């Protein structure tokens, strides 16, 4: 019995499986796109084109591409055919990085906003709590009033019935007068 007649075994593919690491291809395309956008690349391309045209116009024995420069046009077309998709791939990768960065910025902004609102609520609660806290002057005044009331309760009233005379501070004021 052959493997093809068995239904419980999958068929193996005889096709060549071409797997590429998309990250490696993306990095390679970005490096090419970065190079294509430099002044160095433009300078080298300009020099090559000038030498190509000069050799094909003036070096009669070396003319491999006569005047309409069809081979040069073919080279430029091939370069453009490969450069455009590589540049688009690099732009797509940059767009994905920008999207991730934007999402992270949004998340961080929302977290900052939530933190700020929380701190604002805490600050408002602290202001309310501080408003209810006893100040030193208030406490001093209350204690003085309590001392005066205790002094009135402890000292007997004077013979002339003047309650103010029973207070020690009032008696000190009288003696100074």
UniProtKB/TrEMBL annotation:
Transmembrane residue ranges: 41-64, 70-90
Domain of life: Bacteria
Region spans: Disordered: 150-177
Protein name: Uncharacterized membrane protein
Keywords, in A-Z order: Membrane, Transmembrane, Transmembrane helix
The keyword Membrane belongs to this UniProt entry's keyword annotation: yes
One Pfam family matching this protein: DUF1003
Biased composition range(s): Basic and acidic residues: 164-177
Native source organism of the sequence: Mycolicibacterium rutilum (Mycobacterium rutilum)
Entry keyword Transmembrane helix: yes
